Fold this protein.
Amino acid sequence: MQTQQVAFNWFVKPLKSFINNTAFSGILLFSATILAMIVANSPWAEAFHHFWEIEFSIGTENFSMKKSLHHWINDGLMSVFFFVVGLELKRELLAGELRNPKNAIMPIVGAICGMLFPALIYVTLNPDLPTQKGWGIPMATDIAFALGVLYLLGDKVSTTVKVFLTTIAIVDDLGAVLVIAIFYTSEINVSSLIAAGIFLLILIAANRLKIRKTWFYGVVGIGGIWVSFSMSGVHPTISAVLLAFTIPARTYIGEEKYLYKLNYLIDEFKKAQTTHLPIVTHEQIEIVEKMREVGKKFLPPLQRLEYILHPWVAYLVMPIFALSNAGVKISEESLNHLSSNVTLGITLGLVLGKFLGVSGISWLLHRLKWVKLHPDISLKYLVGIGFLSGIGFTMSLFIAELASQEETFLVQAKLGILLASILAGGLGYFFVGRATKNS
């Protein structure tokens, strides 16, 4: 027993703590990217590429959807990512930093300018060119990578700094969702969109009627809204965000009632017959099940789903997405693309545009005394946050795939995204690290 405890304290506990840390998801995402790059430049590159193009269908004989594995990941698996983004947005709007815009005005304005400046830089470098459709690529911030860098610096980084960056990333995600919905949508199938709207109204009504069964929202959401959006021309990931906003966010029973029922069940458990053995009695099982039901009634479905799905997104969905999308063949020909308008537009947009939009505008608002910076956020912290917001990896790769399927464009875009994310991450780490030493 003592040996097991020592093993737990020295190995299992630290490992569990590390895995639960936000930094681990960023490291895993980075590792998947490096692996994709290595395989894409190895003798197995062709097999690696063809693997993602394997097609398979889901459905019945009368109705089925056939896509490549690559498209199932981008349209299906990434819908889970966007669903969690939607859950986080709703939670923040109801009870988080975005509940009172006055308290979050600086990061909100910084996030908006942090989307506009990169887009302007990209368009300036790609005037009247077919590649101009990639203007949305440098607008996004990858929150997993950005927060991962902060957590690598340890507990010296104040919670205020993390909340500031998180708020920027959340507003940024909302902006990216709107950009995808409005500007990166193919021809609209009105009848499919109407069908999606009907299913959405059903779920809104279910929320109003206090239906809290998550399976019901899952069946109607996937079988109704997601499928309808897939056939409508609007990217199906948008349906995931809309679905998230229909999930109930209120507790079924209040805190006082929850504590009363829980205390009552604890007293019943104490009185219950016991076997004094490793197994429990039927009566104890019934009481424990009642405790679980009380817990379900107290926890809002929105927070319960977010808690359950977040690890799956961080440790499975995003690494698989990176593995299937980040593989860029590095050759003399591809390196020539470094000077292309697309690569330069994305690199400068993410590194310089994000910095000017987030840090520059926030500093200007502070200097003009329109909005006050929190005392915990020094100028070096602000500079570091501006650069960290330039890590646009996941969402930028996603928008690049929507912007064009032309091979040269995608190579140039991915090079720009990778280069910018490395530069922005390195600069952000440097400036936030300097700030922590001086604090």
Summary: Residues 255-297 form one domain. Residues 6-19 have pLDDT under 50 and may be disordered. The beta strands are 55-59, 64-68. The chain has two domains: 22-57+65-185+235-249+302-438, 255-297.
